[in-house]
Amino acid sequence: VRSQSSSLAALETPCLLLDRGILERNIERMQERLRLGGVPLRPHVKTTKCVEIARLMTRGQPGGITVSTLAEAERFAAAGFRDVLYAVAMAPNKLEHAANLRSVGTALTLLIDNVQMARLAGEVATRRGIRFPVLIEIDVDGHRSGVLPAPEVLVPMAQAIHATPGLELRGLLTHAGSGYDCDSLKGIAEVAERERTIMVEAARTLRAAGLHCAEVSVGSTPTALTASSYAGVTEVRAGVFAFNDLMQTRLGVCTLDDIAISVLCTVIGHHAPQRRLIVDAGWTAVSQESQLHQGTRIYGRIGDARGRLIEDLALTLLNQEHGIVTRLSGCSIESAEFPVGTSLRILPVHACATAAAHDRYHVQRAGSDPMEVWPRFGGWTVPG
Ligand SMILES: Cc1ncc(COP(=O)(O)O)c(C=O)c1O
Fold first, then answer.
1. Which residues have C-beta atoms less than 6 Å from ligand 1?
2. What's this model's pTM, rounded to 2 decimal places?
3. Residue 67: phi, psi to the nearest 5?
């Protein structure tokens, strides 16, 4: 559901701006990269949580999406996305919700990494007269969850799923989150190649044991944008690339000009003794995500109302509804330079967290006014 919003100058702040030109360029860049690598994109829609954006992300792709909540699965299925991979390990209390989605024709694939969960999912599926497609989550780098790819661990796990009525073993999934810990593009590319080789070998192990392994699903934004090969991989999942943020900029996989979202805020005061500017966007609008920049902990970089970066300013402190902006050089900020009422933009450290604070995007294309409003949603269940 789209609607027209008023012009930028009339927006009540804080609110979330989305530059459609940058969004489309980011999506085309990822799609082109994967096209050259010969592998489809199954975009992760957890960052954006918006039907309009998911349509852009799946354009020219097989159409499958990755979600991080069953609420996303439900909302996107209602909007016509039928091939949905729920890429968080399953919990018993979510099985009926998942079964409901499966029962109405959504091809909802579950992620499982332990036999207890496999047994419970199989019991619900059998009772409900459905089958859950299942991927086994593999831990390739000790980053988070998943089973180790060692044959003595993986094969019994896969056999257990294969033998469970109501479950259909489809393959393997991993997310090499350690790419985020790298300090060079070469390092990220090495993580990507390690992810690929471990997964391809694990798939070979399953097939050699007579088990089905059609899917080899990998991905994150940094690894997808640096991998040298996708041989043996059947799909790449990435999500934050659509928006990008200061985290991706620090990793080196994008530039500040590639960040598609910003929080529009307004100067509400000055604090001369502490050389501070106060804006009406606190942690409720920006999130608490931070990073070190030139030795200072920052919660965002600052641009003017048109999005042009003001190099020396940064968001350095957050209260609930107040943001404190200072000069990285430590110099004072003259109130005449940024009078009360001045509009500024905050570039987010982590786009997923900042976007999660908002229920809509104010979408601009090349500075167009008025803008469209694209709704986004949050939560874990769909009301009603
Ligand atoms: C399982 C899984 N797949 C894919 C992604 C997408 O990675 P990114 O946010 O780097 O695009 C994530 C992100 O956390 C994830 O958890």
1. 44, 66, 87, 175, 219-221, 237-241
2. 0.96
3. -125, 160
DSSP state of 147: B
How far is the centre of ligand 1, averaged over its atoms, from the C-alpha of 380 (Å)?
Answer: 18
Residue at token pair 């082109």 = 32
Atom of ligand 1 nearest to the CA of 240: 11
**Would you say residue 1 has pLDDT above 80?**
no
Centre of ligand 1 to C-alpha 245, Å, is 14
Beta bridge partners of 318: 323
Cα 13 from Cα 238, distance rounded (Å): 30
Nearest atom in ligand 1 to 219's CA: 4
Beta strand extents in 247-382 (DSSP E only): 261-271, 276-279, 291-293, 296-298, 300-304, 309-318, 323-327, 343-348, 360-364, 372-375
If we measure between CA atoms, which residue out of 319, 316, 342, 339 comes closest to residue 329? 316
How far is the centre of ligand 1, averaged over its atoms, from the C-alpha of 244 (Å)?
13
DSSP state of 46: T
Length of the chain: 384
Q: What percent of the chain has pLDDT over 70?
A: 98
